[in-house]
Amino acid sequence: MAECAGCGRALTADEAGLTKKLINRGIEKYYCVACLAAMFKVDESLLYEKIEQFRAQGCVLFAGPDGGVKPL
Predict the structure, then answer these.
(1) What HEC string does 24-70 produce?
(2) C-beta of residue 5 within 8 angstroms of C-beta of residue 29
(3) Residue range 53-70: average pLDDT?
């Protein structure tokens, strides 16, 4: 499992997907929601909302609507 490049916490597949979506799909360093929120100066709740929006749009970077978690 990947670790956050900012704080070292273990990441979820959705956090890795969000890093790719917000920063760059080719990125090799991933960040947790807390570190991404600090970088973009937004509330963590907004980023969780964005994950759900991207998932609803069918973005392949996020787990499916059944809640299945994809491996990194």
Answers:
(1) CCCCCCECCHHHHHHHHCCCHHHHHHHHHHHHHCCCCCCCCCCCCCC
(2) yes
(3) 76
